[in-house]
Amino acid sequence: xxxxxxxxxxxxxxxxxxxxxxxxxxxxxxxxxxxxxxxxxxxxxxxxxxxxxxxxxxxxxxxxxxxxxxxxxxxxxxxxxxxxxxxxxxxxxxxxxxxxxxxxxxxxxxxxxxxxxxxxxxxxxxxxxxxxxxxxxxxxxxxxxxxxxxxxxxxxxxxxxxxxxxxxxxxxxxxxxxxxxxxxxxxxxxxxxxxxxxxxxxxxxxxxxxxxxxxxxxxxxxxxxxxxxxxxxxxxxxxxxxxxxxxxxxxxxxxxxxxxxxxxxxxxxxxxxxxxxxxxxxxxxxxxxxxxxxxxxxxxxxxxxxxxxxxxxxxxxxxxxxxxxxxxxxxxxxxxxxxxxxxxxxxxxxxxxxxxxxxxxxxxxxxxxxxxxxxxxxxxxxxxxxxxx
Length: 389
What we know:
By secondary structure, the protein is of the alpha+beta class. The chain has helices spanning about 1-10, 25-30, 50-60, 60-70, 90-105, 160, 180-185, 220-225, 230-235, 250, 270-280, 295-300, 305-315, 370-385; strands spanning about 15, 40, 45, 75, 80-85, 110, 115-120, 125-130, 130-135, 140, 165-175, 175-180, 190-200, 205-215, 220, 240-245, 260, 315-325, 330-335, 355, 365. About 30% of the residues lie in helices and about 25% in strands. The longest helix is centred in the C-terminal third of the chain and has 17 residues, at about 370-385. β7 (about 115-120) and β8 form a beta hairpin. The strands form 7 sheets. Strands 12-15-14-13-16-18 form a 6-stranded antiparallel β-barrel. Strands 2-5-4 form a 3-stranded antiparallel sheet. The protein has 2 domains: about 1-170 and about 330-385, FAD/NAD(P)-binding domain (3-Layer(bba) Sandwich); about 175-325, no CATH class.
């Protein structure tokens, strides 16, 4: 939608071909229904991250926000640089995009998934169940495989690989983590603040802090999902990742933070936790040492441990990782069409002049916090602008 409006704004005649029954349904599911549409902080991207930074040199966050301001959207910045619609409703973002497309009378052909994209002597031809469409220039912005019915099944990549482009194997990212059952047994439904450190052995790889949710299959919550990309990559290489959960934020030992944090020794806070438990030993009976400190499910899980074992469990509770949940649960896709085959300034293909690509189709993914939608909007704006020139 941003690509269509950007191209139309340059005077181009545009047609949107959409596989779903309606445009933009995935926006409504973003940011827990609030649509975190951008982030004013330091960029946090993976895949071809350096290429993504060149995109933001050409279309910074200020330009993305100006684009939406011209459509009538009021946006506000919250903690961590996260930018949301002022009304707190994802529908507001979708409404301004749809309204402007309708106001400009841009044709939208829904329920028309493109089966094949061909290069012709005059440009390109897209074959769909509703007929074939020809254009001198084409922008492919089909999204990724994440989100179940809101994503695609992988066939959309063939539109570009069929024209010679390279596909980096797509994997789910920002998804829940699956764990050995014994580690999470009895904790399902428990939600509490914690610091999570992903390790290979005891070597810290990455970390995040926030609210962790225990499930019957493993752990969820934004802080866990932030680490799923690294966990999946380790598993794909045959390594055995372990998630160490530090409950120090719950204990009041370290501040509560809701974001990525520097990786450190998973037992760094053990001395402080040990001191906390030792102090409680002098005022509470052994069977009640966690009363008023930890939720009942966690207290029952740790019942029968010695004071030292309890301290270690609260400072670095080990959760062996067995996998990550698939695309139907993931928020974004890692991998995709190789960015190096497109100009970061214009999004035009170096292999097929007149062909452009934008959004999650490309081999770039970001952390939670508005990074992924910002990349989608920025690439759409650039692709539309330059396709129309």
